[in-house]
Amino acid sequence: MEKHPADLYKDHVRPFLRSKLEEFKILGYDDVELESLWSYLTDKKWKKKTELHIYELTSDILSVKIGEFMNYATVESFKTSNWLGSEEGQEALEELLR
């Protein structure tokens, strides 16, 4: 896995990541992990950025909306899931096509 330029600052912005995770918990999303939030930020928010400043990273972290993150997490879970290849997935697909 290729390192993202923001990885250099991860330890510096960790308190802001934790703050955002606490906000998500208050909203009822207890299962969001720091690494998945970081992946969202590096894959989506900072995908094309090559030069980053800590104030930009901090602002981006604090401005993450739960809906944006959950959309990303849902798409990623579909990408990594092989549910349709499973027996349960095949049965559900056959049921839909009847």
UniProtKB/TrEMBL annotation:
Sorted alphabetically, which Pfam families does this protein's record hold?
Post_transc_reg
This chain's protein is named: Post-transcriptional regulator ComN
Taxonomic placement: Bacteria, Bacillati, Bacillota, Bacilli, Bacillales
Tell me what gene encodes this: comN
